[in-house]
Specification:
Layout: E1 3-6, E2 9-12, H1 19-25, E3 44-49, H2 59-64, H3 67-71, E4 74-76, E5 88-92, H4 93-105, H5 113-133, H6 137-146, H7 148-152, H8 155-174, H9 185-209
Parallel strand pairs: 1-5
Antiparallel strand pairs: 1-2, 3-4, 3-5
Helix pairs in contact: 4-5
Organism: Candidatus Chloroploca asiatica
Cofactor: [2Fe-2S] cluster
GO biological process, one term: P450-containing electron transport chain
Length: 210
Amino acid sequence: MPKVIINDVEMEAKPGERLVSVARRNAAHIGFVCGGNGVCQTCQCRVLAGADQLNPPTAVELAWMPERRLAEGHRLACQASIRGQGPIEILSKAEELRRQAVHVVQPPANEQWVDQLNPLVDNVLKLWVDQLSRYPFNLINAVRHAGPVRFTNPSDDVAQWVDDTFRVGSMMLTGSAAAPRVPGQGRAEAALDNAARDVRRAEAEVKRLS
C-alpha cells in the first residue's frame, strides 16, 4: 500500500488514488470546492518528496501554473494521482498559509511578528501573480475542462466544502475528525424525522380511538 504523508501526517492510500481524495478522507487541511475539476485552485500543494511516484502534470495544471512553479514541486492535489508505492510527502498550500499566519500571531522566540509577516505576504502575492499572469487562458481552460454548468453552479461542491471544513476543524481541535456526510444525507435525515413523526402521530391516534 502506498505511503503518503500529508501535512506531516502519514495516511493510507491506494494506487491510482488522487491526493485530494486521500487528504479529504483523513480530514487533512486542504482546499476543495470545485469537485476536483481543477477550477478553484484551493487544493494546491507542494510535493516535498516522491514527485516521481505521481503522474505527470495534467493539462489543467499546465494551464494554471507556470513552469517555474511546477519545477518547484507545486501540484494540484485533485490532478495528482499516485503511481508508485511512495513515500510521497506533500504540504498543502492551505496548511502552509495557516502555519505562516500562526507565526505572525505567535512569533517564534527572539523573533518579531513583522519578520514572520513578510514570508506570508510574499507567498500570497506569488499566488496572485501566477494566476493573473496566465489570465484569461487558465480560466478558459478550466471552464472547458469542468463544463460551464459545473463551473457556474457548484452548489453541491460548496456544500461538500462546508462539510470538509467542519471535519478539518474538528480534527484540529479534538484530534479526531467528525464522520463525513454522504451526498443527500441531510435530505435523508429530514425524511426519516418526518416518517418518525408520522408514526408517533398514528400511534397516538390508535391509543385515542381504543
